[in-house]
Amino acid sequence: MVLLGLRLAWQPTFLRIIFGELVHVLSVLIHNPEATLQELLEYVPGPDFPTGELIMGNLGILEAYRTGKGRIVVRGKTDVELLDSRTKRSASIIKEIPHQTNKSALVEKIAELVENKSLEGISDIRDESDRSGMCVVIELLNTNILKNSQYYGRFN
After folding, report:
1. pLDDT value at position 18?
2. Domain 76-155 sits in CATH 3.30.1360.40
3. 123 by DSSP, 3-state: which?
4. For residue 88, what are the contacts with CB-CB under 8 A and spacing of at least 6?
5. Buried b vs exposed e over 88-106: b needs ≥16 C-beta within 10 Å?
6. CA angle 32, 34, 39 (to 5 degrees)
7. Which of 22, 36, 38, 48 is deepest in the core (most CB within 10 A)?
8. How far apart are the first and last CA of the chain?
9. Does the predicted model carry a pTM greater than 0.70?
10. Using H for helix, E for strand and C for coil, what is the string for 67-81?
11. pLDDT means per 10 residues in the chain (156 residues)?
12. How many CB atoms neighbour CB 64 within 10 A?
């Protein structure tokens, strides 16, 4: 008996959709073997992450398609809500985080950065996530951006 195990290092996708896209790309290449990468990107624009984060630019995607390696920069999705119009205090509401980012670790890292004074302007951070979805509330004293935390992520 021979057993075979595979570990795939590709980014997650919805297989039914991606296979449909790949079949379309193969059809284009059969009919036009000189099709450019730019033309093929119309059918397979990039990875489809399950957590819905935003892909920042497409240079990493182009490089990955061209060479087989590329760095794709992703970030979570947030909303900004005004908490008090009189004091102009607002909150950044994190609705989605990058794939494979641990929400608890993200909240702990932000709290640690605030405690160490590496990240200023945050008055409170709390996790209000429930069955309806993710909701990490970061009350801001100003419009401080979370660039020093796991709010931003990279995939190679």
Report:
1. 66
2. yes
3. strand
4. 82
5. eebbbbbebbbbebeeeeb
6. 80
7. 48
8. 36
9. no
10. HCCCCEEEECEEEEE
11. 50 60 87 90 79 83 86 88 81 90 92 90 92 92 53 60
12. 20
